[in-house]
Specification:
The complex is a heterotrimer of chains A (340), B (289) and C (728). Chain B has 289 residues and is mainly alpha-helical. Chain B contains eleven helices and no strands. In chain B, helix 1 crosses helix 11 and helix 4 packs parallel to helix 11. Classes of the chains: A mainly alpha (340), B mainly alpha (289), C alpha/beta (728).
Chain lengths: 340, 289, 728
């Protein structure tokens, strides 16, 4: 246990240089590459307005030496201040806070759909290696890793909204005629459940299915591929031969003896997929007009709101680093061979 | 005495190549890729219309004999636009992935082979690059650099370099510990000799796998960036931008404007993924034979 | 054959098994027939690829899915458990057919037949504790409750000499010997009537090997089970078996009683027995077996040993040549010729031929003085120091010398530091303290030009011939590499040093390329890779282990070194190929006067090959002396333990050295003698003071405070004599 605590502390310490590097890189992108950082940080309107330009330059210290600027940037970030958007006329952190829940909702829904199906499909294929079921899984997952998520979303909309009329119109989290439930957590599904608003709840579920399915397809495909390979590898291991020789019941063989080993690589892969998922969220939210971080990013791109885009970049970077950190810890807990 | 030196080491390339061509997926992926390359190279001869030529009287026509894949809202021929878009996307993919390959593999080899300070310095930087979700990083870069062909290439290159260096480094590290490298050292071989004769050859296949996969990813990213409006701008035809342009018409039934270019993305990416998988398999098999 | 299967517990009837790998077929087991009675122990002996493991796994019905039963069947207590319909493979697929087969096997698996797998492999599941894996057997096979299963499991662990804490740990936390005992505990858990032990001691240290064999033989007696022991080591396995079956190329070539396996009739058995140096014999010559075992890609008609046999006749090619003939009761041979071996010829002792080999001068070629290598222990994550005692002393103040033309053996177990020492001497590692001298010149690894010159003096042959040649290099390229990297053609004695200027081909006789060709050919001659044309264009994966090791030797010889460091050169080779490589090393010394440092875990082969022996234990040289002196008058308890384990007379180690010898040393760097905690003779002073090497007589030194007393006890004498006795 003592070893584990040390392992945790060391891992946390090792996060520091990566996050520092991340901040340095965004600072580099916003303050050094462009000829005039004020243009990036304030936008063209600000630059042409001397009064606002002064405010900006004072706040960011743009006339001070670079290392001072970096220090100011760092201090701001430590106060969760991700900058000021002149285009929106408000601090970015405030707006991001409101945009977070819908995105989390969508991402979690995609994981809930994607991870179990992906893992199950991988096992299914491995147990039927080179048979019909296996080929079906392999072709589907090849398609899944090759299909751009925004194109898949489009096909889903054509099929389930335009043709079959099974899905709601792809605009937002709820049908327009319904009011949002009172905000408790900020998550529409949870809030409607807590306030006992069953109509909203059902409607929210109905709306989230299509975008979540679109996002989860890539996760399913990648996990199925990894899980299939890892399961086939494990089945041929000597310890599985031992278990076969003992004649343990088949479901114990698979669930207890093979699966635990085979799942190990999927931990890391799932974490990496979360990164891809964050990219996918931007595209999916754009298509489904989902009022989360992704749509916020898209709108910021359209209005050339650079500070907002950089804020999203740095936020998603930190989240991604933390996810990988958690996966690392989880791996250490699940695999007894990892030494602390 | 002369016949003693027949056809040595000729095997090292020909066997995997034959195996690759013999496998169904390998051949299929190669044919698809060749088809796209032909489309790209001979775009002016293949495209029946000028991709930029607007013809409002022919707008939103469904696929027919005269317009193979229909026309868009401005009456431009979708197929002709796709052919030119492929030309552009392949160009972006090949250029950016090749640059990333050169820089990434070189950095990975230096990190893995020389170790210590070089390794730490290089891999720390790569860690930071990998800490961003790649599409979001690419968006940030192209936003800062301003949209367009060059900034897409920079964005894709920068986001793929770390992948190449990781793979190159890990193969170098594992080869470095091979007993035959120790054996060569004990015979007095120089570091350079060991690098070129022992370390580099085994790292070709894994990085080539990544190159193939990288082409697909690059096309995907280029399309996504243009789709979001940070890549190639209209009216220049690009597959992702075309999907974006047709988006509003999908709900009103004119699906072909978006779906046709989408299908072309899907097929080329499937081909590159299949190609990567096959190279990996062939490499595993040919070493075991 | 008139055996009737009712008399047997297990009856294998005309069994044939093929594997399909891609488009090639491998005929692994061909028409085997034999029976095992209740409580009987049978040893199956053969080299890798002879089909012995396939046979074992077929009986346990756990062959991989690409195996097919093409003829015959296996009956267990009269019930068919393997035939062409049921197959002999396991499968994880969910088909109705496979379920039906598994249902039929339910009572056979583990309750009837269990398996002792090789512990060194990944035979235990890495993510479950030993306890889970043991108690699961009771829970799922016997429907026991958890608490009861735990109690039973702990009892079992105690039976195989393990303590209760083993129950809660993961397999990777155990040593090889302990893992092997866990596997034995699993095998006896459901009291089966037949246990198959598949190479149960392979890759364990000799002393641990000895203990496992004792353990198995004790359990066999106390539990009354039948045993099928699979091994490549005939002397070892004969200790555990009543009868032996010798397998070759998927067939049984001889069945004989194990207590007298030296009296054999098949040429293959004969060669196999006489190609292994045995510690109790002072042989001047072991018999090499030419060629390599067939790869079984096609069916062999007639005797499978035909190609390699010195006694072959035309009739051996007839189909009936493979039938087993009864020569006496309990003895069957599949040989059409039945030659009369003159064993006397082989038994010429080294003593009788003394002075026959090349005398060696006292001039040392290789010397090590005070050589020390310490490593920092790495903690799980990066290299972070946690405390000060984190140094591992791999090589501890070693003094060693090899004279010109001398063969010196360095004997030690896994972890003794012998491989690190070989890397220090082979100029592959910088010592922490002390120095290496080559031909009197002190080596400084930072002096590149000097080191480059000196590398031509010392060459290393590595243990693993499968890893030490680049798979992308042809035989020619591999052998020529040392010349190419040195940029010079330094030659055998007759020609002078010449520069290789360029690699472009010249047809003249003295062109660099033809000189290179000449050198390669000379090296191949010396390493007996003949005829050249059979090898020159081949790639490593097309060669047998023995051929690869010869390739490594040729590569080592091409720079014309003064000394070869051979680090376990035969331990990865098939048994029938080992003698050839050992004899080749011997010949190199006799014919070319090359010095050899032979590093090994096998004291018997050290006795066969060497003039002097160093025994290494946990980084230190504990005893050294001329070979005969050290073996007959050993003065260090560790050397005695090695000798007794190698002789392997039942009970002898317990009797002479007590139980403590099997203890695992805890402290990594004790103040006192490193061997004290395992030594029955240790007194208080042994734990307080680290002994130095002290002279006993002439060249004989021992690192024991009580060397004379130990030597005086003559602990090995009686056992050595007892071991030799039955033959004479």
């Amino acid at each position: 246990m003592k070893g584990f605590r040390r392992f945790l502390v060391l891992r946390v310490v090792s996060l520091v240089p990566t996050i520092f590097g991340l901040i340095l890189l965004t600072f580099f992108l916003t303050h050094i590459i462009p000829g005039n950082p004020a243009l990036i940080l304030g936008g063209p309107e600000v630059v042409s307005n001397p009064a606002e330009l002064k405010v900006l330059e004072a706040e960011l210290g743009l006339n001070k030496p670079l290392y001072v600027q970096f220090f100011i940037y760092l201090v701001q970030l430590l106060h969760f201040n991700l900058g000021y958007s002149f285009i929106q006329g408000q601090y970015i952190t405030y707006e991001l806070g409101a945009r977070f829940p819908p995105t989390i909702e969508l991402a979690v829904a995609a994981m809930i759909i994607g991870v179990p199906i992906g893992i199950y499909a991988g096992i299914f294929a491995a147990l039927r290696a080179n048979q019909l079921g296996d080929h079906a899984v392999r072709i589907t997952s090849l398609l899944g890793i090759s299909m751009p998520v925004f194109f898949l979303d489009l096909l889903l909309i054509i099929a389930f909204f335009s043709d079959l009329h099974l899905a709601p119109s792809p605009f937002g989290q709820l049908s327009p005629q319904l009011g949002y439930p009172r905000s408790i957590t900020g998550f529409v599904i949870l809030d409607s459940l807590f306030t006992g608003n069953i109509t909203d709840f059902a409607n929210a579920i109905w709306h989230i299915i299509l975008p979540a399915v679109g996002l989860s397809f890539a996760i399913i495909a990648v996990l199925a591929r990894v899980m299939r390979a890892s399961m086939l590898d494990v089945v041929n291991k000597d310890y599985m031969r031992t278990a076969f020789a003992i004649g343990l019941p088949r479901n114990i063989l698979i669930r207890k003896y093979a699966l635990r080993n085979a799942l190990l690589p999927t931990i890391t892969v799932t974490a990496i997929q979360m990164g891809a998922l964050m990219g996918g969220v931007v595209l999916t939210e754009t298509i489904f007009s989902w009022p989360g971080l992704g749509l916020y990013t898209y709108n910021s791109i359209l209005s050339l709101d650079y500070p907002s885009i950089m804020a999203v970049a740095i936020l998603s970077g930190v989240v991604f680093v933390l996810i990988n950190f958690l996966a690392d810890i989880l791996y250490g807990v699940v695999d007894p061979r990892v030494k602390y | 005495m002369k016949e003693m030196r027949r056809s040595r080491s000729a095997r090292s390339l020909s066997v995997p190549l034959v195996l690759f061509l013999k496998s169904k997926t390998g051949l299929a992926s190669l044919l698809i890729l060749l088809f796209y390359i032909v489309l790209a190279l001979f775009a002016p001869h293949i495209a029946p219309y000028n991709p930029l030529q607007q013809n409002l009287s022919h707008s939103l026509l469904p696929p027919s004999r005269s317009h193979l894949m229909g026309t868009d809202d401005l009456g431009r021929d979708v197929f002709s636009r796709i052919v030119y878009a492929i030309r552009l996307d392949l160009e972006i993919a090949f250029i950016s992935v090749s640059i990333a390959y050169l820089i990434g593999v070189l950095a990975g080899i230096v990190a893995g082979y020389y170790g210590k300070i070089a390794d730490n310095a290089i891999m720390r930087v790569m860690d930071v690059f990998l800490a961003f979700p790649s599409l979001i990083f690419a968006i940030a870069i192209s936003v800062i650099l301003g949209t367009g062909f060059l900034s897409i290439i920079v964005a894709i290159t920068v986001t793929s370099i770390p992948l190449f260096s990781r793979v190159a480094r890990s193969t170098v590290l594992s080869t470095k510990n091979e007993l035959y490298v120790t054996a060569a050292l004990s015979q007095g071989a120089s570091k350079i000799h060991i690098l070129f004769k022992h370390i580099l050859p085994p790292s070709i296949a894994p990085t080539l796998v990544l190159y193939a996969l990288g082409l697909g990813t690059a096309i995907n990213v280029a399309a996504a960036l243009s789709f979001l409006g940070v890549g190639i701008h209209p009216p220049i035809p690009e597959l992702g931008a075309m999907i974006s342009e047709g988006l509003t018409y999908v709900l009103s039934g004119q699906w072909w404007i978006s779906v046709m270019p989408g299908l072309f993305i899907v097929f080329i990416v499937i081909a590159t993924n299949m190609m990567g998988d096959t190279i990996r398999e062939v490499n595993d098999v040919s070493l075991r034979r | 054959m008139k055996m009737s299967f009712e008399d047997y517990l297990l009856y294998v009837d005309d069994l044939s098994i093929e594997y399909t790998i891609g488009s090639t077929r491998i005929y692994a087991v061909n028409h085997l027939t034999f029976g095992v009675k209740q409580n009987e122990s049978i040893g199956v002996v053969g080299e890798s690829g002879c089909g012995k493991s396939t046979l074992a796994m077929a009986i346990a019905h756990i062959l991989p899915p690409n195996a097919r039963v093409t003829s015959g069947r296996v009956l267990f207590r009269g019930q068919v458990i393997v035939d062409s319909k049921m197959g002999a493979s396991y499968s994880i697929r969910y088909s109705a057919k496979e379920r039906k087969i598994e249902d039929q096997l339910k009572v056979i698996r583990w309750k009837g037949i269990s398996v002792v797998f090789q512990g060194a492999l990944d035979s235990l599941n890495p993510v479950h504790t030993v306890g889970t894996q043991l108690s699961d057997i009771f829970i799922y096979k016997e429907k026991m409750l958890k608490g009861e299963a735990e109690k039973k499991s702990k009892e079992l662990l105690n039976v195989v000499g393990l303590e209760n804490w083993v129950y809660d740990v993961y397999p990777h936390q155990l040593s090889g010997g302990m893992k092997q005992r866990v596997i034995i505990a699993m095998a006896i858990s459901l009291a089966p009537s037949l246990i198959i032990a598949d190479e149960p001691t392979t890759s364990l240290d000799v002393i641990t090997q000895y203990r496992i064999i004792e353990e198995l033989s004790r359990l066999r007696k106390s539990h009354g089970v039948a045993l099928i022991n699979i091994s490549h080591d005939m002397p070892l396995i004969s200790r555990l078996s009543d009868r032996l079956m010798v397998m070759y190329a998927g067939r049984i070539v001889e069945k004989l009683p194990s207590n007298n396996f030296l009296v054999n009739s098949h040429p293959y058995t004969h060669l196999l027995v006489n190609s292994i140096p045995r510690i109790e014999e002072d042989l001047s010559e072991i018999l090499p077996i030419k060629g390599a075992p067939p790869r079984l890609r096609e069916k062999i008609i007639g005797c499978p040993f035909y190609d390699r046999c010195d006694y072959r006749e035309e009739k051996c090619k007839e189909e009936s040549a493979v039938d087993l003939i009864e020569t006496s009761s309990n003895h069957h041979v599949a040989c059409a010729v039945l030659p009369d071996f003159e064993r006397a010829k082989v038994l010429e002792t080294k003593a009788n031929r003394a002075g026959n080999h090349h005398g060696f001068s006292s001039e040392p070629v290789l010397e090590a003085s005070n050589l020390t290598k310490t490593f920092e222990k790495k903690s799980g994550l990066r290299e972070i120091k946690t405390s000060n005692d984190n140094e591992i002393v791999a090589v501890d103040r070693v003094n060693l010398s090899v004279a010109e033309g001398e063969i010196v053996a360095l004997v030690g177990e896994t972890g003794s530091g012998k491989t690190t020492l070989s890397r220090l001497l082979g100029l592959l590692e910088t010592p922490s303290k002390g120095e290496v001298r080559l031909k009197g010149v002190s080596v400084e690894l930072t002096q590149r030009p000097q080191v480059k010159e000196l590398r031509r003096v010392v060459q290393t042959i590595f243990q693993d011939p499968f890893q030490s040649v680049n798979p992308r290099f042809s035989v020619y390229d591999a052998i020529a590499e040392p010349i190419k990297v040195n940029g010079k053609v330094s030659s055998t004695k007759e020609s002078n040093e010449t520069k290789v200027e360029d690699d472009n081909a010249g047809d003249g006789h003295n062109s660099p390329r033809s000189q290179l060709d000449n050198l390669v050919r000379t090296a191949m001659n010396s390493a007996e890779l003949l005829p050249h044309e059979d090898y020159i264009d081949k790639f490593p994966h097309q060669l047998s282990g023995g051929q690869r090791q010869r390739l490594c030797i040729a590569r080592g010889l091409i720079l014309n070194p003064k000394i070869l460091i051979a680090d376990e050169p035969i331990s990865m080779l098939d048994v029938s190929l080992r003698a050839g490589v050992l004899n080749l090393l011997k010949k190199l010394r006799t014919e070319r006067g090359i010095s050899i440092l032979y590093i090994t875990h096998d004291i018997a082969s050290a006795r066969y090959l060497s003039d002097r022996i160093y025994v290494m234990y946990r980084g230190e040289i504990v005893e050294t002396g001329t070979t005969e002196e050290l073996i007959k008058k050993s003065a260090h308890p560790y050397t005695i333990a090695l000798l007794l384990a190698s002789i392997g007379v039942e009970g002898s180690i317990y009797e002479k050295l007590g139980k403590r010898i099997f203890v695992q040393s805890e402290e990594s760097n004790p103040i006192g003698c490193k061997f004290a905690d395992r030594c029955q003779f240790a007194k208080d002073i042994c734990f307080e003071k680290r002994p130095e090497l002290k002279g006993i007589s002439g060249d004989h030194f021992s690192r024991c405070l009580f060397s004379e007393e130990i030597q005086g006890m003559k602990l090995t004498d009686a056992v050595l004599k007892r071991a030799v006795a039955p033959k004479n």
